Amino acid sequence: MTKTHPRMPVTKAVVPAAGLGTRFLPATKATPKEMLPVVDKPAIQYVVEEAAAAGLSDILMVTGRNKRALEDHFDRAYELEELLARKGDRDKLKRVQESARLANMHYVRQGDPKGLGHAVSVAEQHVAGQPFAVLLGDDLIDPRDPLLSRMIEVQQELGGSVVALMEVDPSQIHLYGCAAVKPNGLGDDVFRVTDLVEKPDTADAPSNYAVIGRYILDPAVFDVLRDTEPGRGGEIQLTDALRELAQRDESTGGPVHGVIFKGRRYDTGDRADYLRAIVRLACEREDLGAEFRSWLREFVATEMQD
């Protein structure tokens, strides 16, 4: 059994990015879904920015075949930078350079697409026995709502693992991992997780608290994942491993805590939500918002009357 120091600082993040993005075909036939633009930045850059803002300067991206564009995006682009510098376009030059300066980026391939649990397991050597964050690229968290920082704070205080939870309509809970929780006396946003179920039928769901794509994991999760059999969808589910950790005490890698998130979240894994995310973020941009909101009001008034 992995022995850990639960109060070790959280400095590393793992970003699983090996999915095929079949819901966005044909756009993702040759382009990684994580590189689809949300306004003028790829979705994955928002995720890396969130990790960096929370102090996680060491980021491992778990990729797969045809994902080389992710590495290129977070690398220097010397020819482009030199061209922009010669043209004196400092604003575009700054934006191009920004992605390469966010964090220390590392990459590993998942190999077989065996599910989120398997994707996390390939990060074991990189995290080196430390608690670490996992950020899913489909969930964008508004930077004005520092969820990840709060989760790190809870992990540093309580040890174990921490998952992000959000209340959803009961009719939608079958789309998520679902957590059973109980109060732990630490405020109205932190609960003890007593059970977890991956995508339960609505009638069998223990609550309407959905697990969204942010985790702080104790490295004991790797021992559990090694023994976790394929679950829902024939994949190795991270939810199943966390269910095991939820039954343990701190000396063996448990327990699991949940932080209730009530802020702004943009789901780019669904086509309709992806479009909504673009509209919302474009409306809030200082450089685009006023013009775009004016057009949007006119569009709704004239084109959407039916």
Strand and helix map with partners:
Layout: E1 12-16, E2 37-38, E3 41-42, H1 43-53, E4 58-63, H2 68-73, H3 78-87, H4 90-98, E5 104-109, H5 116-121, H6 124-127, E6 132-135, E7 139-141, H7 147-158, E8 161-167, E9 177-183, E10 190-198, E11 209-217, H8 221-226, H9 238-246, E12 256-260, E13 265-267, H10 271-284, H11 289-303
Parallel strand pairs: 1-4, 1-6, 4-5, 8-12
Antiparallel strand pairs: 2-3, 6-11, 7-13, 8-11, 9-10, 9-11, 10-12
Helix pairs in contact: 3-4, 10-11
Describe the protein.
The protein is of the alpha/beta class. It has eleven helices and 13 strands. It has a five-stranded mixed beta barrel. Strands 2-3 form a two-stranded antiparallel ribbon. Helix 3 runs antiparallel to helix 4. The radius of gyration is 20 Å and the shape is globular. The chain starts with 11 loop residues before the first strand and ends with a helix. The relative contact order is 0.16.
Shape: globular
Low-confidence stretches: 1-6
The percentage helix is 25-40%
Distance between the termini: 62 Å
Structural class call reads alpha/beta
How would a textbook summarize the main sheet?
Answer: 5 strands, mixed, barrel
Strand order of the largest sheet: 8-11-9-10-12
How many strands? 13
Strand content: 15-25%
Rg, alpha carbons: 20 Å
Labels describing this entry:
alpha/beta, 13 strands, 306 residues, single chain, five-stranded mixed β-barrel, two-stranded antiparallel ribbon
